[in-house]
Design a protein that fits this description.
Elements (H helix, E strand, L loop, with lengths): L6 E4 L9 H16 L3 E4 L13 H12 L22 H14 L2 E4 L3 H13 L16 H9 L5 E4 L6 E6 L3 E6 L7 E3 L7 H11 L4 E5 L3 H14 L5 E5 L19 H6 L4 H9 L19 H7 L14 H13 L3 H13 L1 H11 L9 H9 L7 H5 L5 H4 L10 H16 L6 H13 L7 H13 L7 H8 L1 H15 L4 H27 L4
Parallel strand pairs: 1-2, 8-9
Antiparallel strand pairs: 3-4, 4-7, 5-6
Bound molecules: glutamic acid.
Length: 533
């Protein structure tokens, strides 16, 4: 393999809150790029339009910048291999799909959804050992297939995976990984609507953007064989592959927002320092720089990491995203600040003049002396103490005992968990974060009988979740001022404090939800038919 200039990339999808895993991958890729005088590229993988969320891309930019993980090339910066947003590269994927068809590396598949459903049913009935697409269209002669495509027959394009043997990929941390042909499917590369899938878009971009190393999370290992076959089919050189260990909850399951805050915005809003967050992410799979006595220095800076980190020495045992450890790392960085830096940091976090001007209309009518300002505005300025040293000691203590109101009389903590979950899901979709919009969304939910919640109780529960107390300025002004990331992360926190609901209860709730969604659609349809806008 030829030595190539080092070009690293991350390729997050704008489908939700910016994930700590994106920060982790950003850190490792940037450090490796800096160590080798290379470039760090940010690409936005936004081909999945069904999961696309409009404000997500900006949040990815903001949270990476907050961490100090700045990129050399990206959608907002441009660069020699742009555009860096996949939705703007459709032409390029079309061209490459055609090229692949000509080279025989892929084929059009005309099977309809009904035929595929039929096939699956048969496979199930015969208890077939091999499931998935049966490659019927692979045997259609190329000329005939081209004619049908030209005639406009609906089709997808599938990758022709090897029919025997195995595919071997080399992973920097894991050595050779052999993926057996038995497990292969002829993956869809271009969907019926003409949009590429992740596999095609990602490989074409990695090649055209001259990416030298693909460093990404372990969950993509199974895609590596597909990507190897694709690179080979195009006749391109495969970048160095490196699959990093997955971040885990304390119980070793894959990190999830039900058990751990996973949004980078949460940590920014909760007052973690970016340098501490980087330090903590750097500890995932690495012990820190070696000390003279053979131990590790746990508290370090980005520059220390650039000087000492080795990508090929990352440990594969699932690193735990341990909140206590994070707080310890944060406290260490906080204490290392000079008094002047501490003062500036605190001011920027909670006491900027701009922020106080925004809050003034909510505070002025509610205080009679300046001495009352801090007590009234505490939850705007700092974190809500859903998570205190005491609650950590008593793991099972739920918020009902801590803050009255989150779980109203007659409801169980699990009910509050579900109600807040519903609130969260709906608020997540609100892009105009104004009191009027928020009120509309919450009132609509409160009016739906299926939740079994009275509006008064629901609103109180939201209030306590975001503010930690029952008296606040009007709820929707408060939500609006608090901002979307903070409000959502506090609702998450309150949900966790209510405890994880049981599976049975979850099923019941889901069923009620589905029923209500169907009712809403029917009502909407009726409204449309009766001439409503
Ligand atoms: N869009 C994928 C993600 O969100 C990128 C995976 C990769 O790095 O290839 O993780």
């Amino acid at each position: 393999m030829t030595e190539r200039p080092v070009r690293m990339r991350i390729a997050p999808s704008p489908t939700g809150d910016p994930h700590v895993g994106t920060g982790y991958m950003g850190l490792v890729n940037l450090v490796h790029a800096r160590q080798h005088g290379g470039q760090f590229i940010l690409r936005i993988d936004d081909t999945d339009r069904t999961r696309y969320r409009a404000d997500s891309e900006q949040q990815i930019f903001d949270s990476l910048r907050w961490l100090g993980l700045d990129w050399d090339e990206g959608p907002d910066k441009g660069g020699p291999h742009g555009p860096y947003r996949q939705s703007e590269r459709k032409e390029i994927y079309d061209q490459h799909a055609r090229l692949l068809l000509e080279r025989g590396g892929a084929y059009p598949c005309f099977c309809t959804a009904e035929r595929l459903a039929e096939m699956r049913k048969e496979q199930e009935a015969n208890k077939a050992s091999k499931r998935g697409y049966d490659r019927r269209c692979r045997s259609i002669d190329q000329e005939e297939a081209s004619k049908r495509v030209a005639a406009g027959e609906p089709h997808v394009i599938r990758l022709a995976m090897p029919l025997e043997g195995s595919v071997v990929v080399d992973d920097l941390l894991r050595g050779e990984i052999e993926l057996k042909q038995d497990n292969f499917q002829d993956q869809v590369l271009v969907k019926q609507d003409g949009f590429p899938t992740y596999h095609l878009a990602s490989c074409v971009d990695d090649h055209l953007m001259q990416i030298s190393h693909i460093v990404r999370a372990e969950e993509w290992i199974s895609s590596a064989a597909i990507h190897k076959v694709l690179f080979d089919a195009f006749g391109w050189e495969m970048p160095v592959l490196c699959h990093m260990p997955l971040l885990r909850n304390a119980d070793k399951s894959k990190i999830s927002k039900r058990k751990n805050p996973t949004s980078l915005l949460h940590y920014r809003e909760a007052g973690f320092l970016p340098q501490a967050m980087l330090n903590f992410l750097g500890l995932m799979g690495w012990g820190g720089p070696k000390t003279e006595d053979g131990g590790n220095q746990e508290i370090f800076s980005f520059d220390d990491m650039c000087a000492h980190f080795r990508l090929d020495q990352v440990a594969l045992g699932g690193p735990v995203f341990d909140q206590d450890k994070l707080r310890y790392v944060n406290a260490s960085h906080l204490r290392a600040l000079s008094p002047a830096d501490f003062a500036d940091t605190v001011r920027d976090y909670m006491l900027s003049r701009e922020r106080l001007i925004e809050l003034a209309p909510l505070l002025q009518p509610r205080v009679e002396t300046l001495g009352e300002v801090v007590g009234t505005a505490d939850f705007f300025m700092g974190d809500v103490n859903h998570y205190t040293p005491e609650t950590r000691k008593q793991k099972d203590l739920n918020l009902r005992q801590l803050v009255e109101g989150l779980v109203p009389k007659g409801q169980e903590p699990q009910d509050a968990h579900f109600a807040l979950r519903e609130v969260r899901e709906r608020l997540e979709l609100v892009s105009e974060w104004t009191p009027a919009h928020l009120e509309g969304v919450c009132r609509m939910l409160a009016s739906e009988a299926w939740t079994g919640w009275k509006a008064r109780d629901l609103f109180m529960s939201i209030r306590v979740a975001i503010a930690g107390k029952k008296e606040t300025p009007p709820l929707f002004d408060t939500l609006s001022q608090l901002g979307k990331p903070r409000s959502l992360s506090r609702i998450d926190q309150a949900m966790r404090a209510c405890g994880e609901p049981g599976k049975k209860a979850l099923k019941k709730w889901e069923k009620q939800r589905r029923g209500s969604a169907a009712d809403r659609e029917a009502a909407e349809e009726e409204r449309r038919q009766s001439g409503g806008a």
